[in-house]
């Protein structure tokens, strides 16, 4: 499965 | 963190500080849409639930806490503060913000990256943020004569969105596997909503006159 992008933005 | 992202976050922070300054020191919220502020409070409340589930950096956590605190503080001031609430243009601020919430929620249920509680709420917050400025823009247009602080507030919010787009372009070219379609599209929609306002803001600034939006 495609890994989700890390939510490092606000 | 790149310079565009930092500039975006600082514009966002600055816009909120301007608004708090206006409300706290002048004790007035004339021209400010409570509907938009309530939508932002909902945006932050649904997006930053991840404060409890994941840690990115001290910077991220502190900013998230500030956005949460400030958005609820502004709503509190406008609704309940003895002096401030009297300056609220209730009769002009008539946008039905509930009509924005439901479609955004349905869209988040249909279009998301992963069907989990936090992920759907995160997506909902992105869609809602994209349109949350609408009640404010409608109010500005109705008020015609916009006071400087409110105009600057909306300008810096728009600047924040523009810097984020530059940040995404930069990250797309400098990082591997950096794709965020949902974030990008809702961010583009959001920034496009400011285009008209920007035009009149820059025009009034260049002619050094008060900001006036056409009816």
From TrEMBL, chain B:
KW Lipid metabolism (keyword) present? no
In the record, biological process GO terms are: protein retention in ER lumen; protein transport; vesicle-mediated transport
Q: Which residues form the signal peptide?
A: 1-28
**Quick one: a GO cellular component term?**
endoplasmic reticulum membrane
Q: Tell me, in one coarse class, where this protein mainly resides.
A: endoplasmic reticulum
Q: List membrane-spanning regions.
A: 55-77, 98-115, 121-140, 152-170, 182-202
- Keywords, in A-Z order: Endoplasmic reticulum, ER-Golgi transport, Membrane, Protein transport, Receptor, Signal, Transmembrane, Transmembrane helix, Transport
- Provide the membrane topology annotation: Multi-pass membrane protein
Which residue spans adopt a coiled-coil conformation according to this UniProt entry?
Answer: none
Cross-referenced InterPro entries: ER_ret_rcpt
Q: Kindly list the places in or outside the cell where this protein is found, as annotated in its UniProt entry.
A: Endoplasmic reticulum membrane
Q: From which domain of life does this come?
A: Eukaryota
- Report the family membership: Belongs to the ERD2 family.
Q: What is this protein called?
A: ER lumen protein-retaining receptor
Q: Which organism is this protein's natural source?
A: Adiantum capillus-veneris (Maidenhair fern)
